């Protein structure tokens, strides 16, 4: 498995490794509850966290408890709901009126799956027949959003959330809290692009997983190569 040589040598420096979950540490699957991590991902993260040199964190659109259930790494910081949910901090109460208004407008097309995260709504349409997917996208784009809410575009998913959050802000905060570490952000989806932009402005390292246009400086083809890179970093020693 060939990895970019200049990425391989980063492990000689103290790193803050920030990762998305779905599509980065786990393959994209039709049912979110089936997104188990890539083989070796948990072991590589455990080694990063316990090697004494690097730090790691997850920034995800999922609830943090879901990622903890998949990875079973209690010491791994998980920032959930695109930056709304932080370890040790209370979540603001959900806007139930806004969520109800959105639910009432959602299309009833066969194959559409609504993932209710309590604070946000994700509408998955990967299982909709391909000939109907564009129509579902148009219907979702026409939804009347509650004041201050926004629609985020992902891979066969549209997520509705309150404004003012996002992976860019979350990644920036994590990097600012670890000034002695080189920040690295690895993600695969459109929602990760704001994180890439934020880290490039901070002279961090950005890695896109998979195909598609990106602001990231590097690219890996799939989660298996992400795991291989993490494992490589855990085996390196700091330069004296």
Observed structural traits:
single chain, 240 residues, alpha/beta, Rossmann fold, Hypothetical Protein Ta0175, Chain: A, domain 2, 2 domains, 6-stranded parallel sheet, 8 helices, 31% helix, globular
Number of strands: 10
- Contiguous uncertain segments of 5+ residues: none
Proportion of β residues?
Answer: 15-25%
Structural class: alpha/beta
CATH homologous superfamily annotation of the largest domain: HAD superfamily/HAD-like
Number of helices: 8
Using the CA coordinates, give the radius of gyration.
Answer: 18 Å
- What's the CATH topology label of the largest domain? Rossmann fold
Main beta sheet = 6 strands, parallel
The chain-level mean pLDDT equals 93
Q: Total domains, how many?
A: 2
Order of helices and strands: HEHEHEHEEHEEHEHEEH
Q: How much helicity do the residues have?
A: 25-40%
Compute the separation of the termini in Å.
29 Å
CATH architecture of the largest domain: 3-Layer(aba) Sandwich
CATH class of the largest domain: Alpha Beta
- Spatial order of strands in the largest sheet: 3-2-1-8-9-10
Shape annotation:
globular
Organism: Deinococcus maricopensis (strain DSM 21211 / LMG 22137 / NRRL B-23946 / LB-34)
Keywords: Hydrolase, Magnesium, Metal-binding
Catalytic activity: alpha,alpha-trehalose 6-phosphate + H2O = alpha,alpha-trehalose + phosphate
Pathway: Glycan biosynthesis; trehalose biosynthesis
How would you concisely characterize the structure shown here?
With 240 residues, the chain is an alpha/beta fold. The protein contains 8 helices and 10 strands. The protein is 31% helix and 19% strand.
């Amino acid at each position: 498995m060939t990895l970019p040589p200049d990425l391989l040598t980063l492990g000689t420096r103290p790193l803050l490794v920030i990762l998305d979950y779905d599509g980065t540490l786990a393959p994209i699957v039709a049912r979110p509850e089936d997104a188990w991590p890539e083989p070796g991902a948990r072991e590589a993260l455990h080694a990063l966290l316990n090697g004494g040199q690097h730090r790691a964190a997850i920034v995800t659109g999922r609830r943090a408890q879901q990622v903890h259930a998949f990875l079973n790494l209690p010491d791994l910081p998980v920032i959930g709901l695109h930056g709304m949910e932080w370890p040790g901090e209370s979540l603001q109460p959900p806007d139930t009126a806004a969520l109800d208004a959105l639910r009432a407008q959602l299309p009833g097309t066969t194959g559409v799956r609504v993932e209710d995260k309590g604070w946000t709504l994700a509408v998955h349409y990967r299982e909709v027949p391909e000939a109907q997917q564009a129509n579902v996208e148009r219907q979702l784009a026409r939804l009347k959003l509650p004041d201050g809410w926004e629609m985020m575009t992902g891979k066969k998913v549209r997520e509705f959330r309150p404004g003012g959050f996002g992976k860019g802000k979350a990644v920036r905060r994590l990097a600012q809290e670890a000034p002695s570490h080189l920040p690295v952000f690895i993600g695969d989806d459109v929602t990760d692009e704001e994180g890439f932009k934020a880290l490039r402005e901070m002279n961090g390292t950005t890695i896109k997983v998979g195909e598609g246009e990106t602001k990231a400086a590097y690219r890996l083809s799939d989660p298996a190569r992400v795991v291989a890179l993490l494992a490589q970093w855990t085996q390196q020693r700091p330069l004296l």
